[in-house]
Amino acid sequence: MNMWRLETGSNLWRRVLLNVAALAMALATVALAGSASAQSLLDKIKNGETVRLGFSNEPPFSIPGPNNEPLGWVNAMALDLLKKLGTTKVEPVVTEWGSLIPGMHAGRLDIITGGMYILPDRCRNVLFTEPLAVLSAALIVPKGNPQNLRSYKDLRDKGLTVATGAGWDDVQNARNAGIPDENILQVAGSAEVLQAVKAGRSAAGVGDYFTMKEFAAKDASMDVTDLLPDSPKGYPALAFLPNQQATVDAFNAVLKDYLASKEMMESVGKYGYTTTNLPDRTTAAQLCKG
Questions:
Q1: Average pLDDT of 260-279?
Q2: Which of 40, 92, 110, 196 might form a disulfide with 163, Cβ 3.0–4.6 angstroms?
Q3: pLDDT category, 7, cuts 50, 70, 90?
Q4: Which residues contact residue 264 at a Cβ distance below 8 angstroms, ignoring those fewer than 6 apart?
């Protein structure tokens, strides 16, 4: 009787161990499959397959067309570079700014083309190409600039509220200038920045000069200031998952000859990008270090 019980217990443990081994092998297989899938973007591009471009409505960086087609100068550059690497097939994934990095990590998109600035905090979550441009911020204000706002300092000293996009680097820039959080109105994106100023919820909106200038040009009730003297330069780039170094290297290789080329300037010129916006010698590695 005892022998029978011992044998049964032995069989039970054998089955447990076999099940554990099988589960471990299954998990390893899933992990390897996921890793292979995550590392296949460059091959996907070279094979001419569809690549998902993630961006929000941030003119003139990225603009969803009537059928969500990828417009704007960052998208234009991305399309040119993808063509050089092997594919012309893209699927636009339009989402809110704050959902871009989480969306890529969740596997919903392959490349962020929304004009995301290279910042140390972001470098911990994504890989960036070398900079596509060098830019700075400006304020959008009511016509005539009634509060005479020219800088973050002006907003701080007058105790006024400024609107900007949630997750934008302008939030931290405003904090660094001494503007308290209660005077920084964080909204979903560029269109909401404009509406906050028009509705009187903020004295000004802050964002990239490109975007603020475009809004002011289309709205007679708005003005845009000159570049803010106390705003750091911004360097937008394309962003990829952290395990896509080979893909980033491939993009950087074609980017070298593409930057400032006639082909590039024809693609981006219609969105207001000029030679004055071409990146300087600052590298992605330097910007990631801060």
A1: 95
A2: 196
A3: very low
A4: 77, 80, 258
Supply the pLDDT for residue 11: 45
Q: Which helix (H) or strand (E) holds 76?
A: helix 73-85
What would the two tokens of residue 284 be?
Answer: 């992605």
- State the Cα–Cα distance between residues 108 and 228, nearest whole angstrom: 36
Domains 41-134+234-289 and 137-224 share a fold: yes
> E strands, 135-183, where?
137-142, 162-165
Is 3.40.190.10 the CATH classification of the domain at 137-224? yes
Question: Does pTM surpass 0.90?
Answer: no
Whether 183 contacts 260, CB under 8 Å? no
| Residue 45 in this model has a pLDDT that exceeds 70 | yes
CA distances from 74 to 17, 26, 28, 58, 64 (A): 54, 41, 38, 10, 12
pLDDT (mean) for 82-88: 97
